[in-house]
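Ops channel
N.P.: pipeline sanity check, posting one input/output pair.
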């Protein structure tokens, strides 16, 4: 199934397959958990990047992490939402890709992660590489191969 053409595809860089940073929903360092929950709910995404004012990547915040942070012993402590900041709760140890990385590396990462943040050498977010985009791309590629 994997022809020379397919190998060529997997050797290409991820540049053309990312959702660019200006289309990525995100929150900023210093934002409250309340704001993050609002953005997550409004956009419909379950996890989004946390950036600083210069658009440097610091981590990922998710609905799950927020709910876990406000879970008290006997009740959900909603008052924590406005007191706590995203940097207290975000996941910092996340997989990352560099803009010139190969598709094959990205493909391996999205087996276990629904998306991976893509940065430049200095840590500035360039975009995200999602399962949807790569599956759509591979589907189109396989259809083309089957037709030829
Ligand atoms: O608002 C949505 N629009 C569309 N077109 N599809 C959506 C939307 N919300 C969810 N989906 C679909 C996608 O197929 O559900 C999948 C899981 O969403 P998630 O994880 O759990 O919120 C979506 O799969 P995907 O496009 O491969 O995206 C994988 C993950 O990447 C999403 C989300 O955490 C993140 N993501 C995707 N686009 C994003 C984004 N984060 C910020 N900004 C974006 N533009």
């Amino acid at each position: 199934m994997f022809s020379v053409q397919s190998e060529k595809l997997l050797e290409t860089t991820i540049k053309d397959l990312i959702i660019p940073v200006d289309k990525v929903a995100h929150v900023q360092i210093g934002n409250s958990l309340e704001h993050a929950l609002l953005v997550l709910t409004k956009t419909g995404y379950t996890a989004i990047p946390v950036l600083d004012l210069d658009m440097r990547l610091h981590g990922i915040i998710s609905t799950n992490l927020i709910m876990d942070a406000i879970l008290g012993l006997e009740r959900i402590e909603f008052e924590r939402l406005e007191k706590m900041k995203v940097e207290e709760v975000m996941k910092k140890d996340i997989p990352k890709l560099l803009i010139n990385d190969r598709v094959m590396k990205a493909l391996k990462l999205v087996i276990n992660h629904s998306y991976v943040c893509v940065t430049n050498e200095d840590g500035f977010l360039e975009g995200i590489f999602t399962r949807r985009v790569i599956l759509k791309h591979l589907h189109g590629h396989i259809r083309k191969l089957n037709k030829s």
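N.P.: looks fine end to end. The chain has a mean pLDDT of 93.
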